[in-house]
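Notebook entry, structure prediction.
Reason for the run: the old model in the group folder had no record of what sequence produced it. Starting over properly, with the input documented here first.
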Amino acid sequence: MSAKGGSTQENPIDARAEEILKRVIVNYILTGEPVGSRTIAKLSREGLSPASVRNVMADLEETGFLAQPHTSAGRIPTDKGYRYYVDGLLDPVRLSQRDKTLIDESLSRVASEFGEAMEIIPKILSRLSRHVGYVITPPIREAVLKHIEFVSLQEKRVLCVFVDRSGVVSHRMIEVEEEYAQADLDRAGRYLVEEFTGLTLGDIRARLVGLMVQEKAAFDVLLKSVVNLGTRYLNAEQDERRLVLEGTTNIMKHPEFADMDTMRRLFETFEEKQHLVNLLDRCLDAPGVRIVIGSETDDPALKNLALVASPYQVDERSSGIVGLLGPTRMEYERAVALVDYISRLLSSLLTSPPH
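New structure, fully documented this time:
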């Protein structure tokens, strides 16, 4: 597992302090209440006294792993404490067979229809974690053409159906300046497939731009249609990365977000989808599950949130992201297990040859 920024494992603490830090974090995740030394003393494997625990907790506070919100209260983990925990103290967990069956059955029905998979995966993640599930598509310009067709709609609109090399299907409606007969749309689709199959959409766009400057394209009705329809579709899609969020109301159930101003800023961030895509894109620079905690996001609106993310492969060139957003006080073991399992399964389904 990798993480954003430098690991706090460069400054390790001793085994006793690690055990106490871990127990504070586990208790705080369960209760949401500051954890006192008496609670930890009762759970200590060494039979430590509350005074001994209190001394270690004071040291952990001094080194920035714990904080004391009120003078008489217990301690709570800091972002630095959570980082130490997720980097070295997590206990790997396995998903139950019931969870795996639910995920397997849901994805096996929809993986060949990418749009449908995009809708159902965040729902599964949100349902099984009680946090916010999300999926981001790869940039469409990286997709490799297998098939494309255009369907005439009313009011100068055309539906484009695109199938990439992996068999993933996506749709987009485009506005056109003239009415097209369906026969002309069929010919334009066949031309694109015959001439450009196996190329990425970015490469196809460059070739269509080249055709636009050729005189032949100005007089050839078929080429004119191809250039017009193809460039309109690709201009709309080339940098598109679709983000689907599910379960944002789950955030409201956590006391950390009870303050209305905090909630307003958070939901404004959810609405700024391109900002979120840019933030989550940072999780793509390494394989495997990534965890970004609170202040590590560099976004004040997300200071109480943690991101758990993993890339999934659509083909050898392009990756998307699947993951969870939840409070820093989340059950990290389960979040990691869910995101890892779903990203691996989705990669397998999308990169397997279509039947």
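Summary: The chain has three domains: 2-88, 97-138+241-351, 141-237.
The old model has been moved to the deprecated folder.
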